[in-house]
Amino acid sequence: MVARRGLLGGAATAAALLLSGCGLGKVSLEKALNRAAEDVDGVTSTGLEVGFEAEFRRYVRGSVETSAASAEEALETFGAVMAAIVAAAYEHSGREEQRDRQAGEITLLDASGAEYDMWDLRPELEAERGRLDGVLLSDFEG
């Protein structure tokens, strides 16, 4: 009886970890997204993470650093990074599963340390979405 309770408790814990975004899928998706961003020309480092927030809203957030010296070059790199992240997310888990993942809290830092956010990259999304947490991966589909 005790062994069966332990087994059921272990299964419930494993299920809770997977649902909370702490499972193996989270780690492998994070690696795929960071690898995709790192492969973009001009990117010097990445720090993207994925997970779940309240009400099980899924997110990808973090920062990407680039060697870009001008705002124009930085935004061009940022656009390429977002396209690469979307492609990697869809390849990893499928479009339908990933398209509604929040992506508004991804920022890019240029060589001088200037920070760019989604409103810098896509100003029209500010009027359309209203909040950074409303910006989705699907907004950057290629």
UniProtKB/TrEMBL annotation:
Protein name: Uncharacterized protein
Species assigned in the record: Brachybacterium rhamnosum
